[in-house]
Write a structure and sequence with these properties.
Length: about 100
């Protein structure tokens, strides 16, 4: 399955906390070199992830922490809220959310 960016020109740089960078570094070291266009996360057979591959682990994780009401997309909102609470500026939040600046697309 080939996927495309969700929006035109949606590539952007994001800041990640050190623990997330460390986990991604370990993942990349374990999976070996890849092309920049390759998916970051794949199934054991190297095929791409699809929504159904994420749903069961997401359901289990929600049950384990007692938040069955949460939607996967809520993680995005939580991350932006935490960034705002940590002092991110409106411009930084808009960049992290992928919101185009006024007059630019």
């Amino acid at each position: 399955m080939l996927t495309t960016p969700p929006k035109v020109a949606s590539r952007r740089t994001i800041d990640l906390p050190d623990p997330a960078v460390n986990v991604l570094r370990e993942h990349l070291e374990a999976t070996g070199p890849a092309l920049p266009s390759d998916p970051l996360f794949t199934r054991p057979d190297a095929s791409g992830l699809r929504p159904q591959h994420i749903e069961l682990p997401w359901v289990r994780a929600r049950a384990q922490v007692g938040v069955q009401w949460a939607h996967f997309h809520d993680l995005r909102h939580a991350g932006l809220t935490l960034a705002a609470q940590a002092g991110a500026s409106t411009r930084e939040l808009m960049a992290a959310a992928g919101t185009p600046r006024s007059g630019r697309r």
